[in-house]
Amino acid sequence: MASKGDESPLSAPGPVEGMPSIRERTIAENSMVVLLQGLQGEVTTVDLINESTARGRVVNVDAFMNIRLADVLYRDRQGHVTQLQDLFITGRNIRYVHIPDHIDIMKTIERQLAKIHRIRNFGGEDGGRKEFSKKKK
Question: What global pTM score does this model have?
Answer without folding.
Answer: 0.69
